[in-house]
Amino acid sequence: MSVSINKITVLGSGVMGHGIAQVSAMAGYNVTLRDIEQSFLDKAMEKIRWSLNKLVEKQKLSQQDADKIFARITPVVDLKTALKGADLLIEAVPEDMNLKKKVYAEVDSFAEDKTLYASNTSTLPITDMAALTSRPERFIGLHFFNPPQLMPLVEVIPGAKSNAGMVDMAMDYCKKVGKQPVLCKKDVPGFIVNRVFIPLVHEAVYCMERDNASMTQIDSAVKFRMSFPMGIFELADYTGLDVIHKATVEMHMRDAKVIFPHPKIKQLFDEKNLGQKTGKGFYEYKGDKYERVNLTEQEAATYNPIKLLAVAANNAAWLITNGVCDRAELEKALKLGMGLKKELFATMQEFGPQNVVKTLQELAAKYGQFYQPDPYLVSYRA
Known about the structure:
By secondary structure, the chain is an alpha/beta fold. The chain has 2 domains: 7-183, 3-Layer(aba) Sandwich (Rossmann fold); 193-378, Orthogonal Bundle (N-(1-d-carboxylethyl)-l-norvaline Dehydrogenase, domain 2). The protein contains 18 helices and 8 strands. It has an 8-stranded mixed sheet, sandwiched between helices. Strand 4, helix 5 (97-110) and strand 5 (116-119) form a beta-alpha-beta unit. The two termini are 40 Å apart. The mean pLDDT is 95. One of its GO terms (molecular function) is lyase activity. This is 3-hydroxyacyl-CoA dehydrogenase.
């Protein structure tokens, strides 16, 4: 299946939708951006204009190019009109299976035979979504990271019936829009990055309780001793506790063994303390400016983050054992999607693989199955 993609329709004009529309237009594609209300579209187009103007200010684009890119994006409310002539549809509506069901039923009644389907989801099963449509073999997951204009990674996830041509098309499209795709070979809960990241947030809360450690102690250790771009609580606040809670529920529903939820995440979600965006999550924030939490190497020295490292490495090992990706692709995804400054397995090497396995065995004996060390870790040799 060799397809040429010229016209792209993006469904949903929120943060992800308008970001995907912008990067596609910047790569030369003609884009139709569709949402259910004109006011949503007006807001999205304003944000795209603002983002392009920023690039002009930074002299990364000429005004003339920015105007051309902007002109390639057509906002449309009517779905039938939006799908006319589309080679590729990228759905970026909110992460709710019932909503997706409704959207795909409508899309299916209007889409032309040639249109290929992609969903920008961070956790929902691709195979289940594909089954809602009349073309499961021409359906794929494209998980862009937030914000799409800046984040280099896209996880490409085939469903059980996606054909090989869809994988080639998706990888090719990602490269054309200047992204680095990583193929997630199996449609598993959390795909690659969230399979490592989401359980880690819960583990950090357990560490705080079990080790009687403070948030800044844990965060300092995660940043300076595990080479993360920021602390794990800080990263959770930055991502949004709503995003983390929804991903947790979804992953747990698909396979209870892949995550060990701590009730604190749901509590913060229920209290609408969603992190940076609401002014309070794990930490409190003042004003609109993004503030960094004060983390220091001195404080990092007061806490050993081996339990967090062990859980991250164990989930990473699970991905390798289950044939979701190989170690090189895993490390690439964690570097680009989570901003790890050093490879996860290189960090594990520093702490000692046998110490990591021993930590997991002790945790498993005390707290259960979730911590059982993966065979890849048990037999790990650098």
